[in-house]
Amino acid sequence: MYTVKTLNKIAPIGTERFNKAVIAVNEAANNPDAIMVRSADMLNYDFNQNLLCIARAGAGYNNIPVQRCAQDGIVVFNTPGANAGGVKELVLCALFLSSRNIFAGCEWVKTIADKQDDVPALVEKGKSTYAGPEILGKTLGLIGLGAIGAKVARDASALGMTVYGIDPFLPDDVKADLSPTVRFVDDIDELYANADYISLHLPYNSETKNKICAESIAKMKDGVRIINIARGELVCDDDMLAALETGKVSCYVTDFPNAKTACAKGVVAIPHLGASTPESEDNCAIMAADQISEYLLNGNLINAVNLPNITMARSGKQRAVVIAKAGPDTPGALLKAAEEAGVSVVSSASKTKGDYSVSLLDFDRESAAVEDALKAVEGVIRVRVI
Fold first, then answer.
1. What CATH number did the domain enclosing 328 receive?
2. How many CB atoms lie within 10 A of CB 117?
3. Domain identity same for 326 and 285
4. Nearest partner of 294 among 71, 5, 17, 7, judged by Cα
């Protein structure tokens, strides 16, 4: 029996997918085989020795120490695309919020509510203060065209916007599909120079931290509107506030408010609602649960972020899942070790990502000796026999 611990509230439609005969969900488990998490901070989490995997019910995973997990042979999964519809809708909402001054206007209306019969006249007199441009005919720059960015591109184009996009990692087939909609650029400075609105769709890492800063803002149009429903750390708050003060940036919409931005002039601060829809939460929970089940029961890695993805149909009596330091001789050494343990390998596969490899080996019969034999191979971090 495997045990799955939940660190946040996970949609029941996901946790109910587990085969209860072999996988139990227990939010109070002290020694789980798997963890499901949304936003809980796991960076300093004390992992139990037999923890096999962590599934993040969402796309981002900067709340999980993915490299430490890889070193310990713990697989980290995410659920890319599961919340894309919900996040896309909030980005579209942010376009209108940034342009039409809706939020500030609504807040102003509250200040005149006590004027009773004079409210309609005051509204007509004061509404011009909150006028803002239409998005029709304007240019939107998308930095990142993954699951969310691509959806935003299509819908923004349908709303009459010209869409510029940059994504050096975009597969050729996706790029071809988006080509009628998006003007692709290789130089981000070209996007900065042409965009009236800029929306970020990037992961957070050391290379994307403070992607939007004084240097990049200086290359943008005067009065640009910037939308960040991706990751708070992509934007340097101090530089953004300075640009808002001078008018270089007309509006900054963020889904990640903090002490600096929450009440700042020109900022529309949304309380992290990007994926806060029942549909997104259900989709993420379903994907996370299915990926945990597939790994626990079959050893297949789907949407792993710290180790290579690998799947292989089962064809033997027993399977070994081996996580190791990547090396050209590792697959051969594992096959040799298995044979020396007295089993025949009927099927095998191996994939590498960065410094790590994952190998799947199916054997013709069950063996109690094969696990120790595989563990003895140089570079092996973890062996699991299922």
1. 3.30.70.260
2. 6
3. no
4. 17
